[in-house]
UniProtKB/TrEMBL annotation:
Species this chain originates from: Catharanthus roseus (Madagascar periwinkle)
Domain of life: Eukaryota
UniProt name for this protein: Uncharacterized protein
Length: 502
């Protein structure tokens, strides 16, 4: 709450100011309005159905006076997850209790014949900040964001404007692969068409204007930069696929000697304090003067953090739009032939990879409600005779790295229940193949799997996966990556004293 201003004034200021935060203002801004008596019941300021779902857990429910019943000035920590199909936020306290959470679908803004993801993510960022309950914002001590891995944005460091469209996480630049393979060690993580380095090399070879002020950012870095304003800062999870080596805490010499190395961001540990939130954004939304923005991570690592699996052998499978696997291992494994790489997690390694199979294929075929109804009719103890490789389109990253792999979703049986059972079981088989591959490559053998992402809501799928994997499989206590990002913000709790980060 901005001291001295009532809800109405703050909400009015926000509506009036919101477009200025999103310059250039997209043309689709509707004549939406706020119900000023209670801004949280507002219709969307955009002419789309209000996608805002804000949930206040019971222990924060107001007690008649409209203010959530939390100790005055208790610090809260805000995490935001920018996944494949939408974005979420989680607001937690130092014990990890949830004080508010919400989600937004990405507004699909068309720019010529493609989606303007830059505008969509920017609008969604400020919508999520706007969805944080007004009376809690003054308690937010720090903010972190996770994004899809290897989603790459190259901007002009002078103007802040993108120098090309973003390269999405699962986009592949095979034409750059020979050049990358010629400089990197054999089977290095960057030796994959969908690596950030392949995207950088592809841009570098095709961009024919002035590149002198170019800066490479990952999706989470760029969103955080909008909030703190210090250009060119990343974290060692997001920077892995451009070639950063978290073991030596630096870029390797074979990369630093490249002509484009100057565009690479500086790298800090995830959850490191970067700077205070920008003053104009702070005052528009009512965050406190000492609100710190800290480095983020990737969405599947945030999901791992949310599951709070701390022992080697524990793993998290993120069943989101994609199937991302993270196994906590004492040994570091890397083999681009299979799309296997290791992210650093403090003094251990998160070994795994990300398949293009997963929920996005299901969403092409069924609504979430249909998934629920059809899944109820599946007997998870029975094996499906159907053998599919569910992909949205050609190309697989892990556990088979084959940019030409074709989807296999036929023959389709008469019964949708049987069809769904076959798809869920086939994705479980891919998951089992992935964990077996990690063991063969020398990672700590998996002994228990926690599930994150939208697919974690499907109890029958969890039972199918337990049977196929031959392991205990559970739904994680916290299934949203946004909770993991909030834990990073909590971790940072760092302070910046006299300009120095403590
Ligand atoms: N009951 C369900 N069973 C299986 N998959 C589901 C179910 N409900 C949602 N999903 C899948 O979850 C995915 C969305 O999960 P989410 O974690 O939000 O994805 P992302 O963050 O990758 O966008 C969708 O692709 C959807 O198909
Ligand atoms: O599939 C994805 C989008 O959801 C990303 O690739 C996912 O984040 C996996 O990448 P990483 O293992 O680097 O976190």
């Amino acid at each position: 709450m901005i001291v001295g201003l009532d809800n109405r004034t703050v909400a009015e200021r926000m509506v009036n100011a919101l477009p200025s935060l999103l310059l250039p203002v997209p043309t689709f801004l509707g004549s939406g309005h706020y119900n000023l008596s209670n801004p949280r019941s507002r219709t969307s300021v955009f002419n789309t159905v209000d996608k805002c779902k804000v949930r206040m857990p019971n222990h924060c429910k107001s007690k008649g006076n409209g203010a959530a019943d939390i100790e005055a000035r208790e610090h809260l920590y805000l995490g935001m997850d920018f996944g494949t199909s939408g974005a979420r936020y989680a607001l937690i306290d130092k014990e990890g209790n949830m004080h508010a959470e919400g989600k937004r679908e990405y507004p699909l803004i068309n720019n010529k014949e493609t989606i303007d993801w830059i505008q969509s993510w920017k609008i969604t960022l400020f919508q999520l900040l706007d969805d944080v309950p007004l009376n809690l914002r003054s308690t937010v001590a720090s903010i972190s964001i996770d994004g899809t891995s290897a989603t790459t944005i190259i901007i002009d460091g002078k103007t802040g404007e993108p120098l090309s469209k973003p390269f999405l996480y699962n986009e592949s630049c095979p034409e750059a692969l020979p050049m990358v393979k010629s400089i990197a060690p054999e089977n290095h993580t960057v030796c994959s068409g969908s690596s950030t380095l392949c995207k950088l090399v592809s841009w570098w070879s095709s961009y024919d204007s002035n590149k002198d002020s170019a800066v490479l950012l990952h999706q989470a870095d760029w969103l955080l930069w909008l909030l703190h304003g210090k250009l060119g800062v990343s974290d060692y999870n997001n920077a892995l696929k451009v070639g950063y080596d978290p073991e030596i805490d630096n870029y390797p010499s074979w990369l630093l000697t490249q002509p484009y190395s100057y565009v690479l961001p500086s790298v800090q540990a995830p959850g490191s304090s970067i700077d205070y939130i920008k003053e104009d954004i702070r005052t528009q939304f009512g965050f406190p003067k000492d609100c710190i923005i800290c480095t983020g991570t990737t969405d599947s690592i945030a999901a791992f953090l949310a599951a709070r699996a701390t022992q080697p052998g524990k793993a998290v499978t993120s069943l989101g739009s994609t199937l991302a696997i993270k196994l906590l291992s004492t040994s570091r494994i890397e083999d681009a032939r299979f799309g296997v790489y290791s992210h650093r997690l403090d003094d251990k390694w998160l070994v795994g990879g990300a398949s293009n199979t997963g929920g996005a294929v299901l969403r092409q075929l069924f609504t979430d409600e249909q998934l629920e109804k059809l899944s109820e009719q599946i007997n998870p103890t029975e094996a499906s005779y159907l053998d599919y490789y569910p992909l949205q389109s050609a190309g697989e990253r892990f556990p088979v790295a084959d940019p030409k792999m074709e989807p296999r979703l036929h023959p389709r049986p008469e019964s949708d229940v049987e069809y769904l059972h076959g798809i869920l079981e086939s994705i479980a088989r891919i998951e089992a193949k992935a964990y077996n591959l990690l063991k063969e490559l020398g990672a700590t053998p998996v002994e228990e799997v926690f599930t994150a992402g939208g697919g974690s809501n499907n109890e029958k799928w969890i039972k199918i996966r337990e049977r196929v994997l031959g392991l205990p499989v559970h739904r994680a206590l916290q299934t949203e990556a946004a909770y993991g990002a909030a834990l990073l913000a909590l971790k940072s709790k760092g302070r910046i004293i006299k300009g120095k980060i403590i």
